[in-house]
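[audit] Reproducing an earlier prediction to check determinism. Same input, same settings, fresh worker. If the tokens differ from the archived copy the diff job will pick it up downstream; this log only records the rerun itself.
[audit] input (228 residues):
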Amino acid sequence: MAFRKKASAICSLLPDILVISECEHPDKLKFTDTAFQPQQILWFGANQNKGLAVISFGNYRVNVLDIYNPSFKMIVPVQVTNKEISFNLFAVWANNPDDPDGQYVEQVWKAVNHYDNCLINPSTVLAGDFNSNTIWDKKRRTGNHSTVVKKLTEKNIHSVYHAHYKQEQGKEQHPTFYLYKNKDKPYHIDYCFVSEDLLQKLSSVEIGEHSFWMQYSDHVPVIVTFED
């Protein structure tokens, strides 16, 4: 929340596209660096203090795809374009307390099945706070973290972190979330999955440091860079 207090730190990373969970409404946002202002802001949510935002910079444009199903409130398909490239981004904040079947990874499971035909295309990205990890799998539940990963793998869509660092799901060495900002309570719950064509262009994956980012949030950024 209160992303306006964190925006300058995030913008110092010079992003092209941001996916921000628990982001306040754009009317409340402040970007103090006049030389680095957003191109567009898409925002979704009912609570003005906590929504999902997709923010573009430079010459990148973002538009919600017509296929968007509001039933998956915080999993939003967006087309990202500039003069050279175009890809589909599924911005994720796995959080829907109104769904009796489950508000977290169950939302992602439902969404990847609903958008199944759209996940066969190249240049596909799913990124954000999945609120999940294999360590919390419920074996009797179909839509757990491992089944989501398996489904995406079958579509040739892979986690950039796990590919880059050669990590196993559930055994990540770099946390993205610290419960109550406590360094002794680390978890990996934020992900960026990309289709095979984009994975081949992957340049780097960085996970923010607890010592710096805990002054701003209980999450640290996942920073993904691709070759031009």
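[audit] rerun output stored. Observation attached for the diff report: The first strand starts at residue 17 and ends at 23.
[audit] end
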